[in-house]
Design brief:
By secondary structure, the chain is an alpha/beta fold. The chain has one domain. Helix content is about 55%, strand content about 10%. The chain has 19 helices and eight strands. The strands form two sheets. A four-stranded parallel beta sheet has the order 2-1-3-4, sandwiched between helices. Strands 6-5-7-8 form a four-stranded parallel beta sheet, sandwiched between helices. α9 links the parallel β3 and β4 (about 165). α3 (about 45-55) packs across α12. The termini are far apart. It binds Double cubane cluster. Double cubane cluster (BJ8) binds near residues 150, 287 and 375.
Amino acid sequence: MDERTENLQMWRELGLDVDRHCDLLNLLRSVYPDIYMSQENRPPAMAYFDSVVAEIHGDRVRELLEHKARGGKVIGTFCVYVPDELIYAAGAVPIGLCGGAQFSIPDAEAVLPRNLCPLIKSFVGFKLSKLCPYFESCDLLVGETTCDGKKKTWEILADYAPVHVMELPHRKGEMERELWLSEIRALRSRIEELTGNAITPETLAGGIRTANAKRLALSRLHETRRSSPLPISGKDALLVSQIAFYDDAERFTKMVNTLAEQCEQRVAEGVGVVSADAPRLVVSGCPMAIPNWKLHHVVESAGAVIVGEETCTGTRYFENLTDETRTTLEDQMKAIADRYLKTNCACFTPNEGRIEQIIQLARSTNSKGVVYYSLQFCHTYNLEAVRVEKALRDAGIPMLKVEDDYSMEDIGQLQTRVEAFLEQIA
Ligand code: BJ8
């Protein structure tokens, strides 16, 4: 059987709507070459990440099904607060399921209110209309009480798949730390029950090492983006982060380290993907799930470069390591709780740490401005923009606020606004 026939059979066995799924893949195949392969002088190691996209619903899904055939479990997640460490420790595989495509939004709008963030509508649409083989491979979905939209969505999704919800506090005091630790304990029990594997200090130490190694590789790559000329485009760096959510952890870490090594070499030799005088910008705000490349593509097509993302598909995913020195299960769980509570999502209040981080990222990457990216109807990020903009103004850093609903209809307007912003900061 050739690979195409094998894939079709696999998708049918997973219960996918195969015809619409083929339309989805064809759409992806039609935009990817324009957005990605048209870039010049990319680091050679990007070939691996291109191949992952080329086989986006093929090879990796097959690996997951083989894992399940050996008795393993697959756990779907939607937020960087869900600790991968525990999932790895139980021998399960975490898969990030956030939706970055407009394709499935009409399917979700048949059930959900339209005035809801596109990221939620996108992933719900994928589930309702059986368009995502990753969703259909999951044995459990882990949601969290971050924003109101997600919180209520888990109740609806629970009619379609088993869901475990983690209560994420929105403040970082002692009481909230205790609550968060108890949520981590509850998740551990649920994962142990699902997998039939007890999490021990040894297996959890392994899970912590796996998660940290991935973070370290991504941080190493990120460090090279502080240099001028820039060794890797923002679009490529974004793609790598997006793939982090579903690729095999060990292989991914190895490939990112190879890529980072090539970028370090480029920095040493003064080789860049664009000239050193291209305006440098930082993006801050909502995550950009695959295949959401719109903003990066518009900005980099206009001659600027994106040198960092203060997002969950950027620094929030890989900053802060979990302490590897703890030896008892309880201490390891505390270390995990501490590590995750350092992350600054806009659902926290107050959230001074996030504002400081944005300024610090813009300064340390020598950026001329910040593009604040909020998804439509994402109240926390939309509202936090008010204070971020004021803090950036006080720091002398210009900001452009962009709101996105995943549609392509506003692309001309976005191009005009980005070009005007670039003129303003020139
Ligand atoms: S830690 S950013 S991954 S919650 S964009 S669904 S917040 S309405 S994705 Fe997020 Fe975790 Fe925070 Fe990161 Fe709601 Fe906003 Fe939609 Fe969002």
